[in-house]
Amino acid sequence: MTLLSTHGLTAFYGDFQALFGVDLTLGAGETLAIIGANGAGKSTLLRSVCGLIPAASGMIRFDGADVGALSAPEIMALGIAMVPEGRRLFPSLSVEENLLIGTYGRKTQGTWSLSTVYDLFPVLRERRHNPGTALSGGQQQMVAIGRALMSNPRVLLCDEISLGLAPVVIKDIYAALPRIKEGGTSVIVVEQDIGQALRVADRVVCMMEGRITLEGTPARLTRAVIHDAYFGARV
Ligand SMILES: Nc1ncnc2c1ncn2[C@@H]1O[C@H](COP(=O)(O)OP(=O)(O)O)[C@@H](O)[C@H]1O
Ligand SMILES: [Mg+2]
Prior knowledge:
This protein is an alpha/beta fold and 235 residues long. It has a domain at 2-86 and 154-231: Rossmann fold. Helix content is 33%, strand content 26%. The protein has helices at 42-49, 72-78, 95-101, 114-120, 122-126, 137-149, 167-175, 177-182, 194-200, 223-231, and strands at residues 2-13, 16-27, 31-35, 60-62, 65-66, 80-83, 155-159, 186-190, 203-208, 211-216. The strands form two sheets. A six-stranded mixed β-sheet has the order 6-7-8-3-9-10, with helices on both faces. The longest helix is centred in the middle third of the chain and has 13 residues, at 137-149. The radius of gyration is 17 Å and the shape is globular. The structure holds adenosine-5'-diphosphate and magnesium ion. The site of magnesium ion has 5 residues, from helix 1. Adenosine-5'-diphosphate (ADP) binds next to strand 2 and helix 1.
């Protein structure tokens, strides 16, 4: 069953067009990876889906309803949460206060609470009274993911959660994904690390210059095909 879809989605920053007719689907319970070079439009696509960039009516559907014209808070209340690029914690707030921000406006029911987020990332329980700035990059990323989970999302959008982190930390962070899926949450991960994307995803989409250039299951995608979709076909 398709939970979330975009239909001919376009996006603009002023006069600059960043998305050109993107058709994307996300199934219930599915983990989808979006790969693509810097500037391909991956973040813009996620921002459009969660209402941070206006989309026209009819372009985004969630659980059978047209959500294209809704505001970001309205979309969040329906159960779409984003882990933004660069984590964006409130530096003066503690870990726990940052996590609690994720519950504001929450309307969806689910299993996520402070205690289940601390079970998922035990180091955050130890550090719960520390300010966000006192954490390592990996711990900050865990807070950003936990904050999004606190809204009990049905769809979790993760924008480059491995960027700038050491491989051992990336492994810890991605180890949380199966437990997030077990709760029934569908996930989109934007990932520049193609190997990581292929390991975690049920399906992969590649973007280039505001368009989807490839779509398939990891088993079906060869390195050569991915290379062409990522950088453009070799001539
Ligand atoms: N706030 C913005 N203002 C103007 N142009 C932007 C803005 N954010 C992104 N862009 C442009 O939109 C295109 C897509 O960017 P983005 O979605 O951030 O790509 P990605 O996440 O794949 O690296 C790029 O050409 C980028 O320069
Ligand atoms: Mg980006």
